[in-house]
Input
Amino acid sequence: MARRIAIAGASMGGLRAAEQLRSAGWEEEILVIGGEIHPPYNRPPLSKELLKSPGSIQEALATVTLRQRRTATDIDWKLGAPVIGADLTGRRLTLATGEELGYDGLVVATGLRPARVRVPGPLHGRHVIRTLEDALGLHRDLRPDARIVVIGAGFIGCEIAATATLLGCRVTLIEGSSGPMQRTLGRELSAGMRNFLAERGVECLSGERVAAFTWQDDGTDGPQRCTGVRLTGGSEVPADAVMEAVGSQPNVEWLAGNGLDLTDGVLCDGHLRVLGTEHVVAVGDVARYPDRRAGTGPRRVEHWANPTDTAKIAAPALVAGLNCSPTPEPAAPLPSFWTDIFGIRVQGVGSPAVADRIEVLEGDPLRPADGAALAYYRGDRLIAAVTSALPADRQLHYRKLVTDAGLPAGSQLAAV
Ligand SMILES: Cc1cc2nc3c(=O)[nH]c(=O)nc-3n(C[C@H](O)[C@H](O)[C@H](O)COP(=O)(O)OP(=O)(O)OC[C@H]3O[C@@H](n4cnc5c(N)ncnc54)[C@H](O)[C@@H]3O)c2cc1C
Output
């Protein structure tokens, strides 16, 4: 009887894992089980171009559905059927449909869901964004002149603030304790991005947090609608809709009870094998694995390139384990990311968030729209570079600098 590799999660990570399993020579069954009803789709447009004009759900889906590579042959899909439990010893999964499925190898690709602001208040009129339905729901509230409060100034919060402003909304961005995208970009470029957002009409409130939501009691039995936020400083910001962009939470609850370390994702080794298991790997946003290039301990990477990078390591390791053959030496992928805000692209390679020193290489980070580049160091080693509004050849130049900086001394892993 054919053996089965089950993949839990049918988004980019699930799709890339299926493709890489075939590339790694797995000719037996592959079953991808997805919580969403849609085939795998691309999420970055959900806060950018698609959010401006999504059209119907069918039209939106047509623009974001991921094309499957030719290697992805003979894959079985079970969509709209979340996995709700796993017995990793008995190698069985339980689906929300009540179905039980056995497997020989398992890929964890269940990604993230948005975190919520933890203060009480009605949910009506409050948005998060992760799915196509989320984007369509938010778009309906982004009417010209609508007052939109965006809570959280990470990448997604800043992108939504920009998109909503371009649609004619009046946007207030509540930054919280640090500036726009500061955790990743560092203080100076973050300050430049705040200037840039403010010049284009986004009201940025720094150093303030949400203390409470406000809402309207219209005396009916219908859902009460959120009407804004009260800030820790005491002021109130009225809103026709609120967008919560305060981070995300890994989808790992279905793995509970198996003795795994599920603190902030699924803990893996450098081959993306889930620690404490046999024949289980993780890919994409949910995987927490050693960042060998930056020289840090295990951490998650939430960028678009990561599902592909991790699937290329995890799939051959899983196939090797199942076939009792030697596990190939894993690569040490160079993380990369980008964001598009008011027409400028901020792009990075490496792990700037774990740097301890930043140097300006080109331009003025306080004027990101005019072109800038920054280098990020950990100790003496260059571990990342970020460019803003620079042409492709300059980005490639800085990418090469980071690639050439290599791995920390003593690292056993092959670079790519
Ligand atoms: C709005 C938005 C904009 C972004 N923009 C950028 C960008 O500009 N640049 C960039 O580098 N990155 C960006 N990203 C990040 C990038 O899209 C992610 O890194 C990527 O989607 C991760 O893919 P994944 O498959 O690991 O996880 P996900 O995309 O989260 O997919 C996980 C899938 O698993 C499913 N699932 C969850 N639980 C279960 C379960 N129990 N059983 C079965 N299925 C389950 C989910 O429904 C989902 O379909 C953006 C993300 C978002 C949300």
Q: What stands out?
A: The longest helix spans residues 306-322.
